[in-house]
Amino acid sequence: MGDWQFFALLMSNGILIGLMYSLIALGFVLVYKATDAINFAQGEFVMISGFVVAVALGAWGAPLWVAVAAGLAGMVGFGFGLERVMLRRLIGRPIIAVVMATIGLAAVLRGFGPLVWGADTKALALPIRDEPIVLGPLFIPPIQLLGATVSIVFLGAFGWFFLRSRKGIAMRAVADSQQVAMAMGINVERYFALAWAMTGVVSALGGIVWGNLLGVDVHLSLVGLKVFPVVILGGLDSIPGAIIGGLVIGVVENVAAGYIDPFVGGGTKDFAPYVVMILVLMFRPYGIFGKKIIERV
Amino acid sequence: MSALLTITDVSKSFGGVQAVSQVDLEVERGELLSVIGPNGAGKTSLLNMISGFYHPDRGAIVFDGEDITREAPSRIAAHGVARTFQNIALFKGMSVLDNLMLGRHVRMRSGVLASVVYWGLAQKEEVAHRRRVEDVIDFLKIQDLRRRPTGSLPYGRQKRVELGRALALEPKLLLLDEPMGGMNQEEKEDMARFILDVNEEWGTTIILIEHDMGVVMDISDRVAVLDMGQKIAEGTPDEVRAKPRVIKAYLGERKPRAAAREPIHERG
Predict the structure, then answer these.
(1) CA A79 to CA A91: how far, in whole Å?
(2) B73 to chain A: which residues are within 8 Å by CB?
């Protein structure tokens, strides 16, 4: 295998994985954009959805569409419920309160998943082939192709929603200024709930794709850790930022792992994204597309 | 017919500061009422209570026969109360058109799900709303700005767009918080003209907060004067202008001499 071929392979893999990061980052961005809350439990949302779908498919033997529907409905309901029961009470409190609440929630969910569904790693089987699709010099695992396709479709759909639809524009208005949005007659709390429900949808899809790729256990929540480099790079409140950030982080970690891992014996994938994140925080703290505001904490 | 807005014995304090104190105010249908007073007199606090951002500690606010004292801002907007803000509060990343369409929000019927499912219906509704928005655009002469992001517009134009967004709501009551603040003379004259036209041609009731006394005395039907949270005078511009307490509270601030001469007025 030639050098360029190796590089192309790393790139294509990075792009596909990166799009799958983008999808999860989108969930984070939706909530931050609409409600100003930083959701440290994003990875745990993905894990819970993975559990629901894997158990529905495996233990209950449900058909695929029922399992997927259960995952989606469960996560949307979870998002709505979470907003109503926990987060609505925190509106207007210091941002650190919401941060701590979601960190606590993350810990609870990491305990809750294995407690209810068992700690063993579950397979989340999808009716797709395992053998990679060979495309010239590239080997593309079908699950990555599926994940990337789902990501593109939903990133596009949410992009359309925010740019073109009335509800999406109203949601941006809420994000811009809650007070002014209220003066327009916009029921701000309803849009908060909608944002959390949309995050539920994205997390459910992420859980299915990542669950298939990694298997479902408590470690599935670790994909959430990749969200932070992605959104810091792209900008916390930017959907294009989530896409570009996901792509860059996916490519960086793959290419870095491909060239550095042979010398250090592995682990490059886990730290390379954070090197990028720290550099971004040092030189462009609001990210590529983020709003240039000085956060006063 | 009863007054459109009745404010009865309304008080509001923040911490130890009495922002508004026992204010009574009635606004008749079709009226243009100005609220004036020195900085910190409680004008904006009063406006914020009408639009529901603050709830009064005591007293009642009745709008169009309904008690709105404790209602949420979004409900009050739905009753037909629109407002502009002291500092421009446009959604800056959005086009003029999107800002104005947001003004239509309370008039839009289809819900979140419906707007996705009943695609056609939502489109139809959109056309009807666009018509009203186009009327507002024509009225304010901002036809050439439709697609421009509001953040890129000059200050005076932004103020005009913000007025347009409030008008798009088809308000029964329009609250304007210093719509001419920071404008040059020409922009002020344009804005005064628009406000008068809204009031006279469209019959919209208006409460105006403004510091430019020339404009206020020119266009208002009535003027209410606040000082230190209390209403110290109310009447036609001429009546208000002649009241000693007003001269003391208002002109005294900038021209100490007028305040010094105040006892003479009181006797005369």
Answers:
(1) 16
(2) 179, 182-183
The boundaries of the domain holding residue B143 are 93-165
* Span A57-75, pLDDT tens digits: 988 989 999 999 999 999 9
- Tell me the C-alpha distance between B160 and B88, whole Å: 10
User: Considering CB atoms only, which of B72, B82, B102 is closest to A173?
Assistant: B102
Overall number of domains in chain B: 2
Query: Could you tell me if the ipTM is greater than 0.90?
Result: no
Which residues from A are below 8 Å from B92, CB to CB? 176
Q: Helices marked H in chain B — which ranges?
A: 43-50, 73-79, 96-103, 112-117, 119-140, 155-168, 185-201, 213-219, 237-241, 244-246, 252-254, 256-260, 262-267
From A109, A108, A102, select the one nearest A38 (Cα to Cα). Answer: A102
Whether the Cβ atoms of residue B83 and residue B47 lie closer than 8 Å to each other: yes
Kindly determine whether residue B92 and residue A177, on different chains, have CB atoms separated by under 8 Å. Answer: no
Domain match, B202 and B152 both = no
Rounded distance between C-alpha atoms, residue B50 and residue B63, angstroms: 9
Q: Are A172 and B89 in contact (CB < 8 Å)? A: no
The model's pTM is 0.83
Residue from B90, B97, B105, B113 to probe the interface with A (highest A Cβ count within 10 Å) = B105
Chain A residue numbers touching B158 (CB-CB < 8 A): none
Domains of chain A: 19-122+142-283 (1.10.3470)
Cα angle for residues A143, A146, A149 (degrees, 5° grid)? 150
- Nearest by CB to residue A185, choosing from B53, B74, B112, is B74
B161 and B177 assigned to the same domain: no
Looking at the fold, whether B18 and B52 belong to one and the same domain comes out as yes
Show the tokens assigned to A150: 């789902």
Dig out the tokens for A97 from the structure. Answer: 């309160």
Give B149-194 pLDDT, tens digit per residue: 999 999 999 999 999 999 999 999 999 999 998 899 999 999 999 9
Distance CA A79, CA B141 (A): 45
Please report whether residue B14 resides in a domain: yes
